Amino acid sequence: MRAWWEANPTMEGAGIPVSEAFKLGERAFGGLLKAQTP
Amino acid sequence: MTLLIKSAAELVDPELVARWTTRRAARETEILQAILRAFVERPDPIVVEEIIQAFPERAPDESRAALTRLDKKDLIQIRDGHVDLAYPFSATPTSFVVHLSGRGDRYVCCAIDALGVALMLGESVRIRSRCHHCGDSLEFSADPFGVGPSADGVMMWAGKRCADERRASTST
After folding, report:
1. How far apart are the C-alpha atoms of A30 and B22, rounded to whole Å?
2. Rounded Cα–Cα distance for residues B98 and A32 (Å)
3. Residue B65 CB neighbours (<10 A)
4. Dihedral in degrees, nearest 10, Cα atoms B125, B127, B128, B130
5. What is the pLDDT of residues A1-38, one digit of tens each?
């Protein structure tokens, strides 16, 4: 991540550990089809 | 400039929560649920007319209007009479692949969408991608409770969506 960012220092945003990104995925999609999937 | 590393809580702000709440409500509508279930069952673009026919109790124009609204809200993408994107799924190749047990590979729009599939379905999946910097392959499992040990140390980039970008799928 650091090597990529040093090559792209103007990129806006932030790094996020995958375990934290998982929490964002949960907010967006958690349980959405679980009950309805046959 | 310093490389910022943030937690999920630090990335979420009231504007984002409001947008997610609206998008979540739309995803819970009957028509978008049907589209998402179709992408779970097969990787191909979905013919719009087939979606309309799946809801015979609705007037076709009503279903068409609902699909147009979902497209305008960037919850799906309609091209040439087909739905070829419904977050998290994309019928066209992306850098992120989710393997569904017994159903095969599906392309998804971004890293967070890839992680969301296990949570959406309540089942284990395998996620494949590549490091944006060195091109090394990345592969790890995820289930509704978290990511597998091979994801230890993996970082993702949460880019800012440009003001003139209509679609999240094209943002950095």
Report:
1. 15
2. 17
3. 12
4. 180
5. 888 888 888 888 999 999 999 999 999 999 999 654 44
Q: How far apart are CA B139 and CA B112, in angstroms?
A: 14
Given CB atoms, is B14 within the 8 Å cutoff of chain A?
A: no
Task: Tell me the one-letter amino acid at B7.
Answer: S
Of A13, A28, A33, the CB nearest to B121: A33
pTM: 0.90
CA B167 to CA B96: how far, in whole Å?
17
Scan for tokens 């800012």, then name that residue: B160
The one-letter amino acid code at B143 reads: D
- Nearest Cα to Cα of residue B23 among B83, B142, B125, B113: B113
Q: Which amino acid is at B69?
A: R
| Beta strands, E only, B17-67 | 46-47
Q: Does B154 touch chain A (CB under 8 A)?
A: yes
